[in-house]
Write a structure and sequence with these properties.
This protein has about 450 residues and is α/β, with parallel strands linked by helices. The chain folds into 2 domains: about 140 residues, Rossmann fold; about 300 residues, Rossmann fold (3-Layer(aba) Sandwich). The chain has 14 helices and 18 strands. Helix 2 packs antiparallel against helix 4 and helix 12 crosses helix 13. About 0% of the residues have low confidence.
Length: about 450
């Protein structure tokens, strides 16, 4: 291995996190220690996402070896990405090297990987050797031994989470003065506007716009191109006459959310917000209104990533729905609010609960592969705990007439190695903002209680 290109030594967790990471270092070379191959072999069994990724890495490695006809492994295998792997890469192509001899000893895997990287560095004094791992402690160990160590960055949807699209924008007070030539018309009880778009108005389809103050107005972008924009006046769901399944919006962002949740032309909605902002309640209310009253969808399907906050309580008995029920506390709590008829007493409440339960199905993420949902209203709760690959798997289950609503709070990520910038929810928000049939709203104001609001700020 000679030359000025860097050598990146990959840890097992990088390959298990993103199997295509092999091909994401452009013209630089990749080094895989023998311990990493052994750990991949241990992880390949099972039906989990990690096991599937482990098997995919092995297939990639086998394909690279076969492409080289078993020759030239010591000289490096050319890292040409296989068909079907869409990568944004530079002009160069690196090479893949394996550890030629195992390191003596049977110590901890991290220490064996470190020993292999130290030996690699000593053999290549003229080249920069970098250990890439998502394990913080291993990066600390590497720095102690004078080895450059980095986190795997190529899976980031954004460089900075604060740059994430919020879904709404405040207009300046001179908005109407800046657009003197506005076409307006009424159609089916809705008010529409068509106006010239200025360069500084970087709008997306279904983005919500609001003008505060005495002349307050709330609009949504229906269509936008290089020169023109079509806006529609939002329904006021804060008024009791426009409540959705008995739920009225308590703030501006909740009104934005109910507007896009109730729009049949919006197939994919993401709601971001801290605890108590009303994500689950709004999504359920809109779902029940469209399933029970409008009969736009056949049923509501609710799922979530089953990641424990505390200690695991072991295996849960029962059917798929019974196993998922303990994870669905948010669903149960919100149904108590939604299924509380003013008349009928306990018998009326029980009848309403039974009716709603027949239209709401709880499903596990583990059984989503290969399924197709037709005319369903799918709610994915705690979506911040999903990887981009899991998010893709779920969204591609949507058949004709299905709407998907993703809920989450990126401040509460429980999945190992996921961060605010690599979460599948962040990934979906960023990739879907350009699509005219998707919408995103960031809910900012908590509506649970003054105790909950103070706790979220002070603790």
């Amino acid at each position: 291995m000679t030359g000025s290109k860097r050598i990146y030594a990959l840890d097992t967790n990088v390959l298990l996190h993103d199997p295509t990471s092999l091909f994401r270092f452009e013209e630089h070379d990749i080094f895989i220690p023998m311990t990493v191959l052994e750990e991949l072999d241990e992880k390949k069994k099972g039906a989990s996402e990690v096991s599937r990724n482990g098997r995919q890495v092995s297939r990639f490695l086998n394909e690279l070896i076969e492409r080289g006809n078993g020759h030239g492994i010591s000289n490096g295998l050319e890292l040409i990405s296989p068909e079907g792997v869409n990568l944004r890469r530079g002009n160069g192509v690196g090479r893949l090297y394996f550890q030629q001899r195992t390191t003596n000893g049977h110590g901890k895997a991290d220490n064996l990987i470190l020993s292999a990287v130290i030996e690699l560095r000593d053999q290549n004094p003229d080249r920069a050797v970098v250990l890439v791992t998502k394990d913080i402690n291993l990066r600390i160990k590497a720095k102690i031994y004078g080895i450059d160590a980095e986190d795997y960055q190529n899976d980031r949807a954004l460089d900075d989470f604060t740059l994430l699209y919020t879904g709404s924008t405040e207009l300046t007070e001179d908005f109407w003065d800046r657009h003197p030539e506005v076409q307006s018309w009424n159609e089916r009880g809705r008010t529409f506007y068509k106006l010239d778009r200025h360069e500084d108005e970087d709008w997306y389809a279904n983005q919500c716009l609001f003008l505060p103050g005495d002349n307050s107005v709330e609009l949504r972008v229906l269509h936008v191109d290089d020169t023109k924009a079509t806006l529609v006046l939002l329904d006021d769901h804060s008024h009791a006459n426009h409540a959705v399944w008995g739920i009225a919006a308590r703030n501006r962002e909740q009104n934005f959310a109910l507007n896009v949740l109730m729009d049949p032309d919006v197939d994919f909605v993401t709601l971001l917000g801290t605890a108590g902002t009303g994500k689950t309640l709004l999504a359920l209310a809109a779902g029940l209104a469209q399933v029970m009253d409008q009969q736009r969808y056949r049923e509501i399907i609710m799922t979530r990533a089953t990641v424990s906050v505390g200690e695991d309580i072991g295996f849960l008995p029962g059917t798929e729905e019974e196993k998922m029920t303990p994870w669905m506390g948010a669903l149960t709590d919100n149904l108590e609010v939604l299924a509380n008829p003013e008349e009928g007493g306990s018998w009326g409440r029980q009848a309403t609960n039974d009716l709603l339960a027949s239209r709401i199905k709880i499903r596990s993420l583990n059984f989503m592969r290969g399924r197709t949902f037709l005319s369903r209203y799918l709610i994915i709760d705690e979506a911040q705990n999903l990887t981009p690959k899991q998010m893709k798997t779920l969204i591609t289950r949507a058949g004709p007439g299905t709407k998907i609503v993703c809920l989450g709070n990126v401040e509460q990520i429980d999945t190992p190695y996921l961060t605010e910038t690599t979460s599948g929810l962040t990934y979906a928000v960023d990739r879907f903002k350009h699509w005219e049939h998707s919408a995103h709203i960031t809910l900012r104001r908590g509506e649970r209680s003054r105790l909950a609001d103070f706790a979220s700020e002070a603790l």
